[in-house]
Amino acid sequence: MNVFKFGGASVSTPERVRNVGAILGRYPTDTLLVVISAMGKTTNALEKVTEAFFAGNKDEALQLFEGIKDEHRSMAIALGQEDTTYLNDFFTEVEWLLHDKPVRDYDYYYDQVVCVGELLSTAIVSRYLNDNGVGNQWLDVRDILRTDDNFRDAQIDWNYTGQKVQELVLPALQQNRIVLTQGFIGSTDGNESTTLGREGSDYTAAVFANLLGAEGQTIWKDVQGVMNADPKQYEHAQWIRELNYREVIEMAYYGAQVIHPKTIKPLQNKSIPLYVKSFIDPAGEGTIIHNSPIRELPPIIVYKRQQVLVELATKDFSFVGEGGTAEVYRIFEELKFRPNLTQNGAVSFLCVIDEHPEKVEALAHRAAQTFDVQLTRGLTLLTIRHYNDGLIGELCGDSSIILKQQTPETIQVLLSSSQAL
């Protein structure tokens, strides 16, 4: 039994949906749990719907959503589905909310709206596969994956979810061989939709792999496998044939987008190998990730743009360590926000964070009660594992270095411009 995960790029066009069918056809006797993301840039489009709705622009939100509906109907028709009315229930789930007025916080509405992307995608792909000889059963993952109500970063109730896997998923796999469901989303015990954080589909697949005792998990992407850098940012990016769990966790921690930060632990706990393969070249070798030591890795390059430097200084020149640092981390915890880099001085505390305007402003406002606060926006954080001096110079170029942290294995440099690699 194996778990496959297909990301949004792999189902972004009718041709690529057909390609998913061809890939599954390469495994005619395997039992497969297939997790599929929203199509293409649907999540981004649904975010704009949510933003318009929350800003009180109901008509704009409905108009934007109408465009998303049209795109999915067109996809279904292009795949030979003359009747698209089966999508209407998913459309209605969002539209009844958009006709209301926001009375809860943004994250709640984000999850109720954005979750429909995965539901539409999987429904269309499931029907296409069944129509073309790849029998499968579609399941709504929200009936299985129970979470808390920490919207946009929900935590899984493993006991309840495990019970539902036994009750719903295993019988479906025994009857159909292929079960197709959604990544990224779940629901509370009050049946409110939740999301697991961006790129959470990888994590969903890992949860199922763990609970099903899978032989392996495969993530299908548009690259050869795991690369040592984003090839769109660094032209000399190299394919890595083999990695271990720890290295991938480090990569994820520093912001590499290949694997979701939570994905590895459920696999590591049961020593389940993770494969990253190309849906463009499914016969290719790809990358395998396991628990064995790996030597002589190339430099791993992670480049995070749109960073904000937050400088906090004590107002009375007292030492920042005398309760000040703890107060900053308490604010981060309450805002559900994680700094990408921190540095302590005697009377100051520096942190580098992603540019999420609402959270940046909330952090600055809360911190200003204790500290003098200064924000510097539009910065870039470069992280290199297994670095060398020549590479640091090449990647920094003419940019000014504002902040630097260095260990024997990893260097992080905050740069004053978002210069391309």
TrEMBL record:
Keywords: Amino-acid biosynthesis, ATP-binding, Kinase, Nucleotide-binding, Transferase. Residues 3-278 form the Aspartate/glutamate/uridylate kinase domain. It holds the Pfam family AA_kinase. Pathway: Amino-acid biosynthesis; L-threonine biosynthesis; L-threonine from L-aspartate: step 1/5; Amino-acid biosynthesis; L-lysine biosynthesis via DAP pathway; (S)-tetrahydrodipicolinate from L-aspartate: step 1/4; Amino-acid biosynthesis; L-methionine biosynthesis via de novo pathway; L-homoserine from L-aspartate: step 1/3. It is an enzyme of class 2 (transferase). GO terms for cellular component: cytosol. GO terms for biological process: homoserine biosynthetic process; lysine biosynthetic process via diaminopimelate; threonine biosynthetic process. GO terms for molecular function: aspartate kinase activity; ATP binding. It catalyses: L-aspartate + ATP = 4-phospho-L-aspartate + ADP. InterPro entries: AceGlu_kinase-like_sf, Asp/Glu/Uridylate_kinase, Asp_kinase, AsparK_Bifunc_asparK/hSer_DH. Its EC number is 2.7.2.4. Belongs to the aspartokinase family. PANTHER family: ASPARTATE KINASE (PTHR21499), ASPARTOKINASE (PTHR21499:SF59). This is Aspartokinase. It comes from Flaviaesturariibacter aridisoli. The lineage of its organism: Bacteria, Pseudomonadati, Bacteroidota, Chitinophagia, Chitinophagales.
